[in-house]
Amino acid sequence: MWAQKATFGAGHKMEALMTTQTLDADEPETLRFGYGDTALGTFVVAESTHGVVALFIGDDRAKLLRDLKDALPEAELVLDQTGSTLTVAKAAALVDAPQLGTDLTLDLRGSPLEVAVWKALQAIPSGETRTYGTIARDLPIRATAQEVGAACAANRIAIAVPCHRVVKSDGSISGYRWGVQRKRRLINMEGVA
Predict the structure, then answer these.
(1) Which pTM does this prediction carry?
(2) Segment 146-178, tens digit of pLDDT
(3) Where are the alpha helices (H) located in 12-84, listed in sequence order?
(4) Chain Cα centroid distance, residue 44
(5) Active-site hit among 95, 117, 163, 166
(6) Where are the domains of the chain?
């Protein structure tokens, strides 16, 4: 499994370090998580010792927890609402005002292609969008627009890895893991025409 630690700020400056992560099969990784509520819905945020590994948005805490367990089946998930207070507050601020960015530390986990796509997404300024094809063309590794779409679908960190800023070649809004209506609202919140 690939892991990347990244910090995403309002200026969209990112300091990243690519590392590989191996876990002892006898001891599952422990991830702490907490819930928050925003204008876009309820969210769950989970973090490792290296940073946020998941930020899911939905309407139902039980479904969010099921989705989190499905996305991170090897991890031991521990509800720590008190210990996650700062992370939950930063995640809520990001969801409510995505145009301001965040200083959440991210623990990106994916294939080399997925991580390359996610880094490209983080480089899209707030208030702008890119097409799947444009991102594929500009990546440092070879990829198709469909592969970019698959990487967006695999993204587990809503808004901080802004897959909502990716549109179809005709500029229309297509699928979004957390709902097309949320994607449209996020784009509108960021002031995209």
Answers:
(1) 0.85
(2) 999 999 999 999 999 999 999 999 988 988 899
(3) 61-71
(4) 12
(5) 163
(6) 2-105, 110-189
